[in-house]
Amino acid sequence: MDLSLSDLGDGLSSESQSEEETCPDKELVAAIMKRRAPPPLITTAVWERYYFANCEIKIKESTEFYGAVVWPSALVLCHFLETNQDKYNLADKNLIEIGAGTGLVSIVTSILGARVLSTDMPEVLGNLRYNLTQNTRDRCRHEPVVKELTWGVDLEENFPRSSTHFHYIMAADVVYSHPFLEELLATFDHLCEDNTVIFWTMRFRFDKENKFVDRFQTLFDLELIYDLPSMKIKLYKAMRRRKVGTETNRVE
User: Fold this and answer.
1) Where is this region: Disordered (predicted)?
2) Is 216 exposed, middle or buried (0-12, 13-18, 19+ CB in 10 A)?
C-alpha cells in the first residue's frame, strides 16, 4: 500500500480551497510521513528507514506476521512523542509498549530516555529483539527489555501489580479484526494505575473495532489528541476513569 501523499497540482484557487477543506490534516500527515524513507531498490532483506529523535532507524520487517510490519499508526505516535517532549518528558520514566510489533515505538521512546519494556506475542519477539538491539545500542541511557505478553493471560503472574509500575503505556494499532478485544481491555486495566498515562493510536476500520472505544471508556477517561481523517487514524490520551460521582468526558 502506497502511504505517500497524492500530488495536488496547480488547480484553480477554488479547487485548492476545496481540497484543503476535505483534507484538513494535510500538513500534519505530510510531516509525519516525511519521517519514512524508502530503502534501497536492491536489498536482501525487507526493511524500512525512519528518522526520529535525530536518529536513522532501520526496521526489519516480516511478511509472515501482522505484527511484524510497521503500520502508519506507529509513525503517528512516534511523531507526537518526539514533538511534545516539553509536555511529556519520557526521560527515566517506566514505559511499556503492548503489541510492539517491529519495535519502532519502543525504539523511539528508548532514544527519548524512557525505561522501556517492549512486549508482544512469542512469534514476533525474535524480530522485535533484533530491531531494538540494532537501533538502540549506544543511543539510550536505558537498554530496552523485550518480554512476552499475551493479552489477558497470566497477567498477575507475569506483571504483578505490587511490583509493576508504569508511568506510560504505549499502544499503536492494537485494535483490529482479531477476537481478543476483551483480553486487550483486561490488559490495559491490569497494567494501568491511577496516574498512568496511556497513548493509543487507532486506525478506524470496522464497527466491531470501533465499538471497542465505547468499551474502553467504561474504564478510562479518553482525550482525543490527533484526528487524521485522511489516514483514518486517531491518537488518544487516556487515564484510569475517575471515581463515581466525578465528571467524565466521552470521546467520539
Assistant:
1) 1-23
2) buried
Q: What angle do CA 233, 234, 238 make, to 5 degrees?
A: 150
Q: What are phi and psi of 17, to 5 degrees?
A: -65, -40
For residue 149, CA distances in Å to 47, 83, 97, 154 come to 24, 29, 10, 9
pLDDT tens across 17-60, in order? 444 445 678 899 999 999 998 766 655 666 789 999 999 999 99
Length of the chain: 252
- The residue whose grid cell reads 476545496 is 18
Q: What is the mean pLDDT of residues 196-211?
A: 84
- d(C-alpha 141, C-alpha 175), whole Å: 31
In degrees and rounded to multiples of 5, residue 113 shows phi and psi of 105, 0
Quote the percentage of the chain above a pLDDT of 70: 80
pLDDT digits (tens, 9 = 90+) for 97-129: 999 999 999 999 999 999 999 999 999 999 999
Beta-carbon contacts of residue 167 (< 8 Å; ≥ 6 apart): 93, 94, 95, 195, 196, 197
Q: HEC states along 152-198? A: CCCHHHHCCCCCCCCCEEEEECCCCCCCCHHHHHHHHHHHCCCCCEE
